[in-house]
Amino acid sequence: MRKESQSGDQWPLVLVPCPYQGHINPMLHLGKILHSKGFSITIAHTNFNSADPQSHPEFSFLPILDGLSDHEISTGIHIISTINVNCKLSFQQLLESHNNIFSCIIFDELMHFRQTVAANLKLPCVTLSTNNFATFLSRSALCQLIGEGQIPFQDSRSQEMVPKLEPLRFKDLPIPRSPDLNGFVQLMAEAYKIVNSLGVIWNTIDCLEQPYLMQIQQKFCWAPIFPIGPLHKIAPHTSGSLLKEDRSCIPWLDKKSRNSVVYVSFGSVASIGEKLKRWLGVGQQ
């Protein structure tokens, strides 16, 4: 269905990001791109880690009841699994309360309740994968190795190549720090059921990952794949930061000579110990 707006008829889309910084930003970038092409964009978000509507006046925002209590906000895997259980019914009721005006739902791949809701409402569903093809394949390999009992691995295997993913070594695998490896495998198994989607938008570019794209098309995904990234390069400028920008380092930087400082980012949820900090310092010298 179409929705009337002051700017004329638009195709109304609802976007459902996973509530973590590295997932929210690409979804907002995609929303900006689609909005610039004439689509009406609604962001359906959890109460946990919600984006700031005031920073995106061109979007509509709808909260989804996530049912998270303070004691449930622990590890990322547990939070995402709980959200997928709790949001399934509340999101469907939210769409029904808006008379199912939306033409299509675009979900983050980790919000796997998409499959049930889209099927119940008979709405087309598109998946957004915020990582690249190599990450998809390495996580798939990791899940298989966990299932085979090869993870955790002995230190003596750290330099061994991961089968069929050369030159990736065992120590390069994206092993979660959570002790609940089975929970990780279950989450990935649900998230990677992308064959039911109308298509998959991937935040990468095929000219850099053509061999990996071919592997995914042959083994994992028969839906159309759209590697249109990097999204932040083609989207109008936007800020989706969940944290207030810390500018306290600027006076220190101003005192340094040009090209004398190296900036290293580990993302918004990474944590490192003192030993690793020292290793990184040595590596930068």
Automatic annotation (TrEMBL):
The keyword Glycosyltransferase applies. Belongs to the UDP-glycosyltransferase family. CDD domains: GT1_Gtf-like. This is UDP-glycosyltransferase 76F1-like. One of its GO terms (molecular function) is quercetin 3-O-glucosyltransferase activity. The keyword Glycoprotein does not apply. PANTHER family: FLAVONOL 3-O-GLUCOSYLTRANSFERASE UGT76E12-RELATED, GLUCOSYL/GLUCURONOSYL TRANSFERASES. Keywords: Glycosyltransferase, Transferase.
